[in-house]
């Protein structure tokens, strides 16, 4: 699996973790969502470096970063 695919998969996993945390309101699920978002951010960063010469990949990774921002905001709302 390429770093690009890993990054997109990590974003999907982060999304699922945030949804689970919203549904359960449990501390463990909130912690998992925080970790999942951080892992996804790191993988997107690596993929952006690896895919720097591919415009379409860069665009999709930019969209993934935007999605992670929204997921982070949703996760932060769970803490309030």
Describe this structure in words.
This protein is mostly helical and about 80 residues long. The protein has three helices and no strands. The protein has helices at about 5-25, 25-50, 55-80. Helix 1 (about 5-25) runs antiparallel to helix 2 (about 25-50). The radius of gyration is 13 Å and the shape is elongated. It starts with a helix and ends with a helix. The mean pLDDT is about 95.
- Quick one: biggest sheet? none
Rounded to an integer, what's the Rg over CA atoms? Answer: 13 Å
What is the N-to-C order of secondary-structure elements (H for helix, E for strand)?
HHH
Distance between the termini: 37 Å
Helix and strand content put the structural class at: mainly alpha
Number of helices: 3
The count of strands amounts to 0
Look at the structure and give the mean pLDDT. Answer: 96
Helix and strand topology:
Blueprint: H1 3-24, H2 27-50, H3 55-79
Question: Can you describe this structure in just a few lines?
Answer:
The protein is an all-alpha fold.
Output the keywords.
mainly alpha, elongated
